[in-house]
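Q: Given only this backbone (295 positions), what sequence would you predict?
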């Protein structure tokens, strides 16, 4: 890597502790997460995201999803409030009709995670614009999956959230956002991450066999990976939820990203030890988070 990086390991984790919630803590003071996404094609994605947010200690969870999947998702995740949003004929959130409902929800959250399970590029762009238009400037944002590439055309709307955004792209999503090829990104991921972080005022988590995290001030972290078992559907949805939950608890964006990546990787190693290195499910990862969190 041409940019100097700091290893994300147990020493970094010890030096960057999470907020402590002592006596008198309530579910509101532990943080409120609003997750927006899913579709009829990928109805369970937000369950992975939401459960991860709760497993890292967030106090309250709301999930805003297409109406046709709201009831079953609520039954699968009884700890959450599930909001049924208008949907289009393809089973995606209809952003044109959902604005009024989302506007009210934005006042009842600390962090918004947007994008998991959204399957249509045009719909993703409309949803992200809606979030950027409606969210208060104090809100922390995790922009995930297909909505990441949409930020390229919405940079002006995102300016007010500088230093309050975490992006979680894999190499394909980073290619869409930057216009660079995946090969070029892989040749120097640290430089690409640093450039994107500076451009958007965001903490950028570039996911791969190894993970590189960059910040607007030029800090770059490197995590050696949680094993090949993480290369499975839904793994990224879990990571987005973990970061969102940590942000909602009051964790600074870089620390939330670093802890989220570390928890994700260490949890995968634990599951791999119990289940085998390949073949475990994304929904098994978050179950390990509470055992890894400080007491």
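A: Predicted residues:
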């Amino acid at each position: 890597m041409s940019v100097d990086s700091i290893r994300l390991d147990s020493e970094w984790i010890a030096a960057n502790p999470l907020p402590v919630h002592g006596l008198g803590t309530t579910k509101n003071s532990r943080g409120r997460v609003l997750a927006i996404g899913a579709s009829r094609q990928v109805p369970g994605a937000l369950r992975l995201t939401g459960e991860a947010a709760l497993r890292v200690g967030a106090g309250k969870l709301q999930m805003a999803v297409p109406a046709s999947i709201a009831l079953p998702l609520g039954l699968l995740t009884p700890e959450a409030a599930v909001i049924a949003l208008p949907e289009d004929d393809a089973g995606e959130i209809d952003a044109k009709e959902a604005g009024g409902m989302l506007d009210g929800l934005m006042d009842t959250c600390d962090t918004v995670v947007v994008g998991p399970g959204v399957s249509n590029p045009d719909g993703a762009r409309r949803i992200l614009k809606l979030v950027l238009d409606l969210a208060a400037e104090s809100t922390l944002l995790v922009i995930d999956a297909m909505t990441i590439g949409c930020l390229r055309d919405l940079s002006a709307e995102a300016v007010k959230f500088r230093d309050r955004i975490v992006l979680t792209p894999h190499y394909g999503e980073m290619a869409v956002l930057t216009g660079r090829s995946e090969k070029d990104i892989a040749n120097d991921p640290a430089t690409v991450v640093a450039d994107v972080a500076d451009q958007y005022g965001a903490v950028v988590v570039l996911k791969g066999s190894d993970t590189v995290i960059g910040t607007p001030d030029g800090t770059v972290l490197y995590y050696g990976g949680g094993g090949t078992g993480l290369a499975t559907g839904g793994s990224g949805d879990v990571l987005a939820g973990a970061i969102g939950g940590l942000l909602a608890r009051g964790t600074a964006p870089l620390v939330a990203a670093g802890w989220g990546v570390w928890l994700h990787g260490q949890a995968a190693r634990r599951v791999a030890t119990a289940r085998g290195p390949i073949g475990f499910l994304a929904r098994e990862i978050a179950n390990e988070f509470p055992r890894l969190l400080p007491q």
